[in-house]
Every structure is written in structure tokens, then in C-alpha cells.
Write a structure and sequence with these properties.
The protein is α/β, with parallel strands linked by helices and about 500 residues long. Strand 6, helix 13 and strand 7 form a beta-alpha-beta unit. Helix 2 packs across helix 4 and helix 12 crosses helix 13. The protein is globular.
């Protein structure tokens, strides 16, 4: 899919940017790490925890450079892209550590440069390497990635697919009002701004309803309809799919022509620059997946998440180049698919969570025909909000997780106040991966099986040393993620 996202002129601009970046890298080696995932997957928390653990020397036993003591220091530097907002690391850490609240979700692109000074494990590398690597971390919403396939679709294709998705049982009731309003629209009628706005607002409301916890759906393009940013209210975001336009040419001055023009403007001025200026410049990528939210919502949400993961992975440029081609074109040679919030489960279920996400990723990888790139899957928690324990119930010993559920979270008839630490038996994920994609994973009333119902927890209360120094953020397999993503560059 990625090959169809750019024109010859786009590729020329990408090549020029790559040559410039490679030349700068001769003096100061750097690597661009993309961090993405659908909303609430934990992008902000992952970046904050990664930086905090490296800067403060956290426990990272699976990260070779740290384990062997070869990292002299890690520190933040001024980022190279002046036009990209800085990732507000300090604010996010204050929220996690001081206020024990989760930081605000990613709403737009941001960037942070972390520089690592290290000693190579190889004598040869110590002779020729500066022993310094800058990691440019690029944070962006996964919803925006779901826009990239639109570059290969006409307005008629987009409209047809939108109505097909809206007719699915899991979406039909949420789309009822928008579909009814669309049925009254006459595509060949004269263009009318009020009609266009009403259709766009109704379509946006339907997409936002799909995203709520009750449905937890993931495939919801256009992404800026959910996160408009400074484009809110602009003509580029005031369009909506139209019914019955397949195979028809828009009459100049008609509603059809207006919507089609705005759809194409959205692709030209919003989607294409996002790919050219950000996605095409990445060297490594981590995709964070909140499978818990989809598991809570049931098999339909899992199937929709699988569709979204497939489309996201198909947008990257994976593969390995050589010394010559790398000067003109960047390829993502390592992609990590991370199932987040593993701390919401007892460790006995971590392998099952990883298997579920591997099922999502394996199908996506096969469909996208990834070749050359190393791809791995891990179940992790960038910040561990719980600890494990056991309780006895009716003569049976149950593995539990202990933490402080967020205010308003519920299990059965119990609603948590956000202050009381509680031991919770989270249930066991099914042994069969296929079960979470099948209707058998619901109860007799058609609701998600309460045996795999999860709640969200507050960040942990961090201990302090006798000198008053706050310890690094606890995690699950953050070190394994670091080793896969940048470990080879520190060897």
C-alpha cells in the first residue's frame, strides 16, 4: 500500500530530506523512532516511562547496554524539527509521579530527542564510533495512520466502504441517525453549506460513538474527524460520505462535487503531508495496542481492531536497504507490536495476551507482505500500576492483582472511588486465541463475558530513597521493548 501513497515529486522530496538527514548523522548518529497506537493505548505513558527509566537509571535487566553498565548517561536535548511541537515530558512525569493521574492522550504530533552516551561492547566499534546516539521519538495518533489508505481511494470508494461498515450489526444502531440524514441528501442537488455541515457533524458524532468504551471500535477514518486540532470547522473537515454515487460523475456545482472536492483537499493538504513529512522519515516503529478495551467490548470489537491493525501496518515502509539505498530512502527495519496494560492481568495470562495480539499482527503482516524487517510482539506495561498477590476464596487460592482502580470503574454492582487499594481477580484469558474473536466469548444475553472484564487503575505510588529521590517508574517488559527497538545501535 505504501508504494501508492506518493507521487514522483513526493519521492524526490523524501529522498532529498533523507540525504540531508544522513549527512547530519555522520557527525551525530541518530535514529527516528515512531510511537503510535489508537487512542488510550498508552503512547504518552510509554514515551514518558522510556525516557524516565533511561535518564534515572531504572531497572532494565533485558536491555543489554544498561545491564552491562555501558551507558554513561542519557539526557534530553533540543529536538531537530523546529516546526513540530515538543513532547511535554516534564508535564507528563509530574502527572504520573506527583498527581498519580494518567497524562493527557496524544492529540497531535510531537517529538522529543533523547541522547544516550555509551561505550560500545565491540573494540572495533569503540575505535570508529562516537559512542553517542540520539533517539528522536516521534509521537503521533494511530487514528491518523488509518487515513493513509484513503490516498488510494476515490470519494465514491470511501463513501461505499463507510456505508458498508455502518451497516454492520455492531455499528448499525449508532449510525442510524447519520444514515437517515444521508438518505434525505440529494447528491445531484445544488451545493449547500448548511447541508454539508449537518452531514459532517452527524457523521462525526457516529464515529465518536463507535469509539466509546461500550463498542470500542477502531476502524474509524477520517482520523481528523475524531481529533480535528486546528482544522476544526475548516472546509477540509466539512464533508461526509454520500449514498448512491458509485459510478456517477459529479455535476459541477452539486453537493456531490462539493463533498468530493473537500475529500480530495483533505487527502492533499492533510493526509499526504503527514505521510511525507513524518511516516516516510521513520527508522523504527512501535505500535501499541490496547487489547483490553476491545476484549471488554466483545468479539465484534476484536474483529474491528484486527481490521485497524491490518490497515495501520500496511501503511509503513518496512524492509532493509543497503549502504547506497539507505542514503536516499528510509525503511523501517524493526517494528514492535506491543500489547499494553499487561499489568491488568496476572502474569499467568501474559502469554495468552501476547498470543492474542500476535494473532492480530500475524494476519496484518501476511496481508501487507512484510519482507526484510524484523517484527516482534510483546505483552508489556510501560508503567506498572498493580502488583500481584493471592487470596483464598471457598477453599480455592486465586491469583489477584492489587492496585487502586480509577474513580468510576465498576465490577458488577461495585463502583470504585479512586482512592481505595483493592485486590481484584481479573479472570483468565481463554486458552484458545480464536475464542476471543467468536460469539462464544459472550454470555447468554449477548453481553461480553464478565470473566474477562477489566478495570483501569491509577498510576502507582512511587517509593523514595532515604535521600528523598523518587525511584524510576516500575514496568513490565519495557526493557525488552528497548532492546528490540534500539539495542543493536548501542552494541
Amino acid at each position: 500500500m505504501a508504494s501508492s501513497l506518493t507521487t514522483i515529486s513526493d519521492e524526490a522530496r523524501i529522498a532529498l530530506d533523507t540525504v540531508t538527514g544522513r549527512a547530519a548523522g555522520l557527525l551525530q548518529p541518530s535514529i527516528r523512532l515512531g510511537v503510535t497506537g489508537l487512542s488510550r493505548a498508552g503512547k504518552t505513558v510509554f514515551i514518558s516511562a522510556l525516557v524516565h527509566n533511561l535518564v534515572h537509571g531504572g531497572r532494565l535487566p533485558l536491555f543489554d547496554a544498561q545491564k552491562s553498565g555501558r551507558i554513561a548517561r542519557a539526557f534530553l536535548e533540543e529536538q531537530p524539527d523546529d516546526a513540530v511541537p515538543r513532547f511535554q515530558y516534564e508535564d507528563h512525569i509530574a502527572a504520573l509521579v506527583d498527581q498519580r493521574i494518567w497524562p493527557d492522550s496524544t492529540r497531535a504530533i510531537s517529538e522529543l530527542r533523547l541522547t544516550i552516551e555509551f561505550e560500545s561492547a565491540s573494540g572495533w566499534n569503540r575505535m570508529f564510533s562516537a559512542g553517542k546516539l540520539s533517539v528522536d521519538i516521534v509521537d503521533y495518533p494511530g487514528e491518523w495512520l488509518l487515513d493513509l489508505p484513503l490516498l488510494g481511494k476515490s470519494f465514491a470508494d470511501f463513501s461505499n466502504e463507510a456505508f458498508e461498515l455502518a451497516a454492520l450489526p455492531v455499528r448499525a444502531d449508532l449510525a442510524r441517525e447519520w444514515r437517515a440524514l444521508s438518505a434525505t441528501a440529494v447528491p445531484d442537488a445544488d451545493a449547500d453549506e448548511l447541508t454539508a455541515r449537518r452531514l459532517a457533524e452527524s457523521f462525526s458524532a457516529y464515529l465518536k460513538a463507535c469509539k466509546l468504551d461500550e463498542r470500542a471500535l477502531s476502524t474509524l477514518p477520517p482520523g481528523r474527524f475524531l481529533m480535528p486540532g486546528d482544522l476544526e470547522g475548516s472546509p477540509a473537515l466539512t464533508f461526509a460520505p454520500l449514498p448512491g454515487i458509485a459510478g456517477k460523475r459529479a455535476r459541477p456545482g452539486s453537493l456531490h462535487a462539493m463533498m468530493e472536492r473537500r475529500y480530495e483537499a483533505y487527502k492533499t493538504h492533510v493526509v499526504k503531508p503527514f505521510f511525507r513529512e513524518h511516516i516516510a522519515r521513520l527508522d523504527r516503529q512501535i505500535v501499541l495496542i490496547d487489547a483490553m478495551q476491545a476484549l471488554n467490548a466483545g468479539p465484534a470489537a476484536m474483529a474491528d481492531l484486527e481490521r485497524a491493525v491490518t490497515e495501520i501496518l500496511a501503511c509503513f515502509r518496512p524492509g532493509r536497504g543497503n549502504f547506497l539505498t539507505d542514503w536516499f530512502a528510509r525503511r523501517i527495519d524493526r517494528i514492535l507490536i506491543a500489547a499494553t496494560k499487561a499489568d491488568h492481568l496476572h502474569h499467568e495470562s501474559h502469554d495468552r495476551l501476547q498470543a492474542i495480539v500476535r494473532r492480530l499482527a500475524d494476519r496484518a503482516i501476511a496481508k501487507a507482505s512484510f519482507t526484510g524487517a524484523a517484527v516482534d510482539v510483546v505483552a508489556m506495561a510501560a508503567v506498572r500500576a498493580t502488583r500481584e498477590g493471592t487470596v483464598k476464596q471457598g477453599g480455592e487460592t486465586l491469583p489477584v492483582i492489587i492496585g487502586t482502580p480509577l474513580e468510576g470503574e465498576r465490577i458488577g454492582d461495585e463502583t470504585f472511588n479512586g482512592h481505595t487499594e483493592t485486590a481484584i481477580f481479573p479472570g483468565d484469558l481463554p486458552r484458545s486465541v480464536d475464542a476471543v474473536f467468536e460469539e462464544l466469548a459472550t454470555d447468554q444475553a449477548g453481553e461480553p463475558d464478565p470473566a474477562i472484564r477489566f478495570v483501569r487503575f491509577r498510576p502507582p505510588k512511587l517509593e523514595r530513597t532515604a535521600e528523598g529521590v523518587t525511584l524510576s517508574l516500575p514496568h513490565i517488559r519495557l526493557d525488552r521493548a528497548l532492546q528490540f527497538l534500539i539495542g543493536d545501535r548501542l552494541a
